[in-house]
């Protein structure tokens, strides 16, 4: 048996609910897989076979105790700007499309998505399906392959998640149910009220009123919990301040307009003061500056140049501040970017920040997607202390490193003093060795003691402790017996 988790809006907690359900089933010995037919996110993950999927589905897979795979997120949309998105189909680049043209593809993509679901169902027996955004987007019903059209194809029980922290939870739930198509509304088997601040018992009368208004049982009121799981999309950046630390070590991550995979820095966020700094804001006073990945290197480079970021980076370099580029940020730190019309509409050459003597070329619609394990070999005080690290590459373009030393075996570059380096490796700072190497150096420069990060920290994508904590929290506040009844077939199979 399987179920669908839909939401009253974006960012209400659908992804976390699916992860919690997957972990709860896993803890009961019931095989299960996560699934999201269509995801729009610049935070992605590369599977063992080189497929690219949304990071939320990778997190959910780890919660379920299984390896992430392309069928778990058959359609991934990666916005590039100007209403253009790259469509990743079954883990591989399909095409770049204008949003208005994308909807011509929905019949084909829905067929692919349903087939992917059926493959997962056949292998695992149980699938927890996540919708996208709000379920009641009435203007999209004819092309909504993540919610309504998928629900119509699968005919599974629906669990509706609402966010009480936003306010208006009664209108959220009642309005969503009222607007659902008549053939979909009866499939809604339960409601979860999420992100409650305080004692959930205080909302007992609210639960009664919701059930009276809708005729649908409220299966739980889940309190807000700050459990360290990777962020799903750009909406999560606004929450970054809530996980602040009192550490005197300050790290600036440039908040690029098309920033991608900012989950790279969430382990750092637990142990240093990490600020996501918009273009134009001052970079003085930071102990380290990181240029993250981006979905469009040349357009974000143009934005940074217009705000004078290059001059600030060069000033920081003169002060001995470490500067690190990841993926698109690595490309920007180079001397030139030669684009044959892949990143921009017409072929052109762009001047980078010039802190690394490398040249990047975009010569074809090819994307590198691969998991990697490498040893840091670069010079200086930071890289040699990292040891062996693992991560994944997701990028267009190839970079020629010239005469500079490698940062890692076979990849990346560093200046001779090792204080500026670039790499294509996403997930570098999810390795405790890399985090300890950077923070130990920054702490020494500040003259403060540094306590190494423990290997078992919850920042890792596959950290079991965080998933178990999430499942326990969920089970404590949700009627799991009612939900488990929907998985009775899978329970017998397990």
UniProtKB/TrEMBL annotation:
GO biological process: cobalamin biosynthetic process
Superkingdom of this protein's organism: Archaea
Cited Gene3D superfamilies: 3.40.50.880, P-loop containing nucleotide triphosphate hydrolases (3.40.50.300)
Active site positions, chain numbering: 327, 426
Keywords assigned: Cobalamin biosynthesis, Glutamine amidotransferase
Biological role stated in the UniProt entry: Catalyzes amidations at positions B, D, E, and G on adenosylcobyrinic A,C-diamide. NH(2) groups are provided by glutamine, and one molecule of ATP is hydrogenolyzed for each amidation.
NCBIfam families named in the record: cobQ, PRK00784.1
Protein name as catalogued: Probable cobyric acid synthase
Protein species of origin: Methanoculleus formosensis
Gene name tied to this protein: cobQ
């Amino acid at each position: 048996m399987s179920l669908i988790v839909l939401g009253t809006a974006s960012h209400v907690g659908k992804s976390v609910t699916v992860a919690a359900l997957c972990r709860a089933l896993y803890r009961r010995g019931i095989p299960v897989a996560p699934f999201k037919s269509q995801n729009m996110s610049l935070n992605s993950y590369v599977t063992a076979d080189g497929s690219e999927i949304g990071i939320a589905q990778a997190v959910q897979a780890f919660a379920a105790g299984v390896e992430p795979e392309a069928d778990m997120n058959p359609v991934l949309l990666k916005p590039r700007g100007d209403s253009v998105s790259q469509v990743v189909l079954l883990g591989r680049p399909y095409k770049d499309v204008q949003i208005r043209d994308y909807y011509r593809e929905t019949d084909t993509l829905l067929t692919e998505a349903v087939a992917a679901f059926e493959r997962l169902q056949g292998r695992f027996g149980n699938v927890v399906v996540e919708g996208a955004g709000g379920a009641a987007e009435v203007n999209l019903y004819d092309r909504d392959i993540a919610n309504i059209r998928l629900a119509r194809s699968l005919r599974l029980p629906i669990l509706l998640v609402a966010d009480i922290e936003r306010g208006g939870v009664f209108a959220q739930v009642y309005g969503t149910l009222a607007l659902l198509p008549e053939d979909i509304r009866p499939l809604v088997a339960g409601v979860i009220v999420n992100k409650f601040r305080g004692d959930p018992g205080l909302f007992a009368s609210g639960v009664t009123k919701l059930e009276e208004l809708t005729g649908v049982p409220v299966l739980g009121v889940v309190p807000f919990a700050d459990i360290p799981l990777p962020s799903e999309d750009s909406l999560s950046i606004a929450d970054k301040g809530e996980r602040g630390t009192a550490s005197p070590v300050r790290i600036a991550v440039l908040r690029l307009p098309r920033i991608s995979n900012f989950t790279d820095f969430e382990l750092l966020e637990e142990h240093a003061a990490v600020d996501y700094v918009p273009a134009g804001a001052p970079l003085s006073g930071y102990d380290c500056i990181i240029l993250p990945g981006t979905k469009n290197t040349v357009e974000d480079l143009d934005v940074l140049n217009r705000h004078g970021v290059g001059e600030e980076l060069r000033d920081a370099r003169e002060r001995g501040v470490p500067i690190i580029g990841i993926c698109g940020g690595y490309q920007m730190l180079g001397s030139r970017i030669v684009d044959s019309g892949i990143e921009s509409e017409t072929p052109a050459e762009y001047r980078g920040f010039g802190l690394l003597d490398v040249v990047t070329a975009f010569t074809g619609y090819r994307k590198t997607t691969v998991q990697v394990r490498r040893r840091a070999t670069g010079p200086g005080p930071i890289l040699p202390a990292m040891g062996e690290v693992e991560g994944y590459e997701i990028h267009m373009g190839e970079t020629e490193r010239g005469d500079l030393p490698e940062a890692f075996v076979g990849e990346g570059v560093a200046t001779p003093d090792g204080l500026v380096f670039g790499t294509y490796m996403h997930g570098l700072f999810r390795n405790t060795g890399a985090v300890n190497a950077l923070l130990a150096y920054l702490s020494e420069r500040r003259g403060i003691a540094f306590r190494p990060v423990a290997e078992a920290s919850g920042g890792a994508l596959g950290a079991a402790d965080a998933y178990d904590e999430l499942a326990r929290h969920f089970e404590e506040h949700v009627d799991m017996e009612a939900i488990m009844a929907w998985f009775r077939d899978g329970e017998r199979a397990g």
